Amino acid sequence: MTLRLMTYNVHRCVGVDKKLDIARVAAVIAAMKPDVVALQELDVGRARTGGVDQAHALAEKLGMRRHFNAAMHVEEEQYGDAILTALPEKLVRAGALPHYRRVPGNEPRGAVWITVEKDGVEVQVINTHLGLVPQEQQKQAAALIGDWMTHPRWTGPCVLMGDFNATPFSATYRMLAAVLRDAQGDRKESPTATFPSGFPFLRIDHVFLAGEMKVSKIESPYDARARKASDHLPLVVELEL
């Protein structure tokens, strides 16, 4: 039995051509046929993107349900991350990660965790988007490891994915790789980079795994639509459970 996972920073559905296009982002996702989609940088009710609930709009276009976590509130406006799926699912947790306040204008960060079921197998899935400051990233990674992943539900096949803003050479990545395995870690081929979308050479979007799972395929679309839709490309990991 296979499970296709996607992590995708959609940059508010504003492409590198400066065009706001939710339908284009939905088309990039649909073309890869994922079972579970972890999205970062979604606007919900924000004036700058027309007041649209982007999590709801994308879920509706894809025929999926969504769980959204607002990492940041600007009065009535929200900004954050979501997990979309058409599989049976239930929310386990959504909330904030440690915030590094020493940098003016630094965005708060969060995570959202759901359980999905496929062919009777339950899989735990956490989506997150870590900060830009290394000290902050490390505090956020420590919170995921020492708080979120000590929860009794974190058992069996487990996935942590998202935009970590951390390359494999960073201390943040090493913290996570010490307790989880990188889905790309055992590949004979060169790892797939996703940022920036026009010429991807950085690996900051990751899928980490725990439990008995085999990676059967790793993909990232590089067609003209995907290169324009966001400043990141999506990363797709297919698992055998």
Commentary on this structure:
- There is one protein chain.
- The chain has one domain: Deoxyribonuclease I, Chain A.
- The radius of gyration is 16 Å and the shape is globular.
- Strand 7 (121-129), helix 3 and strand 8 form a beta-alpha-beta unit.
- The longest helix is centred in the middle third of the chain and has 13 residues, at 134-146.
- With 241 residues, it is of the alpha+beta class.
- The chain has helices at residues 22-32, 54-62, 134-146, 171-177, 224-229, and strands at 2-9, 36-44, 65-74, 77-85, 89-96, 110-118, 121-129, 158-163, 181-182, 205-210, 214-219, 235-240.
- The chain starts with a strand and ends with a strand.
